[in-house]
Amino acid sequence: MNPLSVTCLLHLLLLLVVADAFSLFPKKTHVQINNDLGSGIDLTVHCKSKDDDLGERHLGYHNNFDFGFRPSIFQNTLFFCSFQWNGLFHRFDIYVQIRDSLLCPVIKETLRLYPPAPLVPRETIEDCTVAGFHVPSGTRLLVNLRKLQRDPNVWDKLPDFMPERFLSDRANIDMRGQDFELIPFGSGRRICPGITFSLRVLPLVLARLLHGFEWGTVGDKAIDMSESPGLTNHKATPLEVTLSPKLPSMISASIKMHTTYNQ
Ligand code: HEM
Question: What does UniProt give as the signal peptide span (predicted)?
Answer without folding.
Answer: 1-21
